[in-house]
Amino acid sequence: MTRTGFVVANLFRKRVRTILTLLSVIMAFLLFGLLQSVNSVFSSGADFVGATRLFVQARVSFTTSLPLSMVPKLEAIPGVTHVAYQQWFGGVWQTNTPLIMFTLDPQRYHDVYPEWKMPEAQWQAFEQTRTGLIVGRQLANQYGWKVGQKIPISSNIWPQKNGSKAWAFDLVGIFDGKDEDWQKRTNLAFIQQDYFDEANQFGIKGRTNFFILKLAEGANAEAISRTVDAMFENSPDETKTQTEKDFNISFVKQIGDIGLMVRWILFAVFFTLLLVVGNTMAQSVRERIPELAVLKTLGFSDGSIFGFVLAEAFALVLAGGLVGLVLASLAGALVEKATGGQFLLELDASVWLLGVAAIVLMSLAVGLLPALRARRLEIVDALAGR
Amino acid sequence: MSEPMVQVHNVTKVYERGKQKIEVLHGLTLEIPQGDFVALMGPSGSGKTTLLNLIGGLDKPTAGEITVGGQRIDQLGSGQLANWRAHNVGFVFQFYNLMPVLTAEGNVELPLLLTKLSGAQRRKNVAVALEVVGLSDRAKHKPRELSGGQEQRVAIARALVSDPQLLVCDEPTGDLDRKTADEILGLLQVLNREHGKTIVIVTHDPKAAEFARRTLHLEKGQLLEQAA
Predict the structure, then answer these.
(1) Strands ordered across the beta sheet of B89-92
(2) Are residues A283 and A363 in the same domain?
């Protein structure tokens, strides 16, 4: 027998209670892992995109459109090499599978986003085909789409002039990302702005949700942002210009402050866990006061007794925490697989690090008071049941 | 029986219960030679268990000196006292106080976790201790699978395993029937006579006291002989 063996044996003296407590720890850390992954998906804003592109949207909201007539003015700003634009299409595949789909000018977009890799012939086909559609590799793989197919897609925003929400596009290209990070984002679909302008029922023409400015090497992104916003100040189309990363973050935050929501949910989960595990530990020590006194009688020091109780708390939270985080990894992988890679729920190193920190803090929080109580036990009083 | 194993000199013990102060021992003096087997008897509240706790280093006197095996234990700090107990004294309680989650051999091995012995050496010592108390065949059993007498034998093996010279036993047969009690007391007698252990037991039972070499009577915190 070892001291570790003794700690584990004590942990399972009330098997059912320990298993139930362990399950609550597992559930808490499973939630922690998944929610932290969601949080990092929503807050990372794709660090790898850098600051070589600026996004220009209407100052009020990016749902308010801006006129394409702004393009020449934006192109004339020193430091801006190319200008592209994107309009949200609200595409839906089959009955209810939403697609991340935009209308755009193919050549302009190609100039601004060299990170998307597609044969030049397919870029040309996209430019020349009015009903052309290009999609990322993930999307194509997920639905088994092949170049040359006609893809029926409806829009939950834009009906056609004939009133139908069902649109049909010719798949003319499938693009990849330049590296692993970009490849993970190939869940996008793009169609021609010109076709959209002509065919939509509302007569929306020559307008877009936002412009993307590609900057020259070494250009001062902050100064250009200020220049753009100053240029359209006090006009009917006031702008808000930000880096691509900041834009991505604000885009996902339209459904709320995910980080704040996640923090509150986790606070509630861990607070409950604190009560559950803390109660288990306190009860476990209370039940064993004579036994702890006997250990002290045999010569175990106050520090050893403190260590035994804290080690029990740590073992309980560590076992539950690690199992919970591993399950969260598996669940994340399942979600990623089920969504064809559109929703990347992977537990990266930062989530694991946070998880380990949470395990240590939780162990201390639930184990410290019972351990101190055990440490302070007076042998004579404890043996006499006082 | 020559060198004193235990020397208690002018010891007073006062307990504080809330605002009340209770003086349990009043200037008690006592010597127990090495190899002695002493039974402490007396009515409830006479201070028997308090004296036993002081001799075993579980508690400290309010005043006076206690020397065990040449060591002034009343001057030791809490950590030093724990270490001293681990190496110099074995304890046997009325209700055995075994760890229910451990087997008999696990319980006996517990004190050895405080030593630097290897796992193999620990297991060997445990086997010897269980052999001495005649429980080798019950080594893998947990306390709930043992009778009261067997549990007390395991407790004695646990007290013996680190080979202390002093055994202190608080009502070791208080929870046992006569026959089993006599077996346990016979075992203690063997440990005293054949293994040279100094033994101090607290008991209410005159028949149990008969197994000791001598009996000391306490009353109101003083030895009767001393009071006389």
Answers:
(1) B89-92, B166-170, B198-202, B37-41, B214-219, B222-223
(2) yes
**For chain A, how many structural domains are there in total?**
2
Single residue among A203, A237, A271 that ends a domain in this structure: A237
DSSP B75-112: G--HHHHHHHHHHHEEEE-TT----TTS-HHHHHHGGG
**A39 and A65 co-located in one domain:** no
Residues A66 and A40 reside in one and the same domain: no
Q: What is the pLDDT of residue A256?
A: 63
Among A208, A237, A266, the domain-final residue is A237
Contact A6 B102 (CB under 8 A): yes
User: Per the domain annotation, does A242 fall within a domain?
Assistant: no
Q: Hey, CA dihedral for A302, A304, A310, A312, is it positive or negative?
A: negative
Contacts of A12 in chain B (CB under 8 A): 101
B165 shares contact with chain A (CB less than 8 Å): no
Evaluate whether residue A156 is within a structural domain. Answer: yes
Within a 10 A sphere around the Cβ of A279, how many other Cβ atoms?
A: 13
Segments forming the whole domain that contains residue A320? 3-44+257-383
Residues A191 and A133: beta-carbon distance below 8 Å: yes
Q: What are phi and psi of B136, to 5 degrees?
A: -55, -35
- Taking CB atoms and an 8 Å cut-off, how many pairs form between chains A and B? 68
At residue A206 the predicted structure's pLDDT band, cuts being 50, 70 and 90, is confident
Identity of the amino acid at A291: E
Q: What is the pLDDT of residues A71-85, one digit of tens each?
A: 999 999 999 999 999
For residue A28, give the nearest of A220, A272, A205, A238 by alpha carbon.
A272
- CB contacts of A291 in chain B (<8 Å) are 97, 99
Are A117 and A181 part of one and the same domain?
A: yes
Q: Do A300 and B82 touch (CB under 8 A)?
A: yes
Residues 6+ positions from A383 with CB-CB distance below 8 Å: A290, A293, A294, A297, B58, B93, B97
**Above 60 in pLDDT, residue A271?**
yes
SS3 helix, strand, coil % of chain B, rounded to 5?
40, 30, 30
Report all structural domains of chain B as residue ranges with CATH numbers, in order of start: 4-227 (3.40.50.300)
